[in-house]
Specification:
With 147 residues, this protein is of the alpha+beta class. The protein has one domain (24-142): Hotdog Thioesterase (Thiol Ester Dehydrase, Chain A). It is built from 5 helices and 5 strands, in the order E-H-H-H-H-H-E-E-E-E. It has helices at 32-40, 45-48, 50-55, 65-80, 85-88, and strands spanning 24-26, 89-96, 106-116, 119-128, 131-142. Strands 1-3-4-5-2 form a 5-stranded antiparallel β-sheet. Strand 3 (106-116) and strand 4 form a beta hairpin.
Length: 147
């Protein structure tokens, strides 16, 4: 399976069934869980305290699942690009299946399943190494107008 997105002659992504959206790769820094805890109000110690996380059997503090889901949303809106990007994501659903940790790259891959009435149905997942942390994701995206 190729990770190169299909593009038209001008380099723009083509929204057609089978097209892969550009892969998003992001490496969360060691402090992202603390910043996200402040923004979300989720101060569960498994996200902000390495020692506590290790005491309960985790490798150290783990990322918030919703932060990871936000990266999945980001991948969809970045594929749209431009001023319309924030409003283009109409729906997003994911299954959380694994833990992710700071300072290790997460990749989000997405593929257009179908396009109808100006809306693309997209399947998506997020992985950290060989671990799928988000799977069976689906998104509905407003297809941007062609130039």
């Amino acid at each position: 399976m190729s990770t190169d997105p299909k593009t038209d002659g001008a380099g723009a992504f083509t929204w057609e069934p089978g097209s892969e959206l550009p892969t998003l790769a992001v490496t969360p820094d060691r402090y992202v869980t603390v910043r996200y805890a402040g923004a979300s109000g989720d101060f569960n110690p498994i996200h902000v305290d390495d020692e506590f996380a290790q005491q309960v059997g985790l490798p150290g503090k783990i990322l918030h699942g919703l932060w990871t889901m936000a990266q999945v949303a980001r991948a969809q809106t970045e594929a749209v690009g431009g001023a319309q990007a924030p409003a283009a994501l109409r729906r997003l659903s994911v299954e959380f299946r694994g833990m992710a940790v700071p300072e290790q790259e997460i990749t989000v891959t997405s593929k257009v399943k179908g396009v109808e009435d100006g809306l693309a149905q997209v399947t998506t997942q997020a992985k950290q190494g060989s671990t799928r942390v988000v799977r069976n994701g689906t998104a509905e995206i407003v297809v941007p107008p062609t130039a």
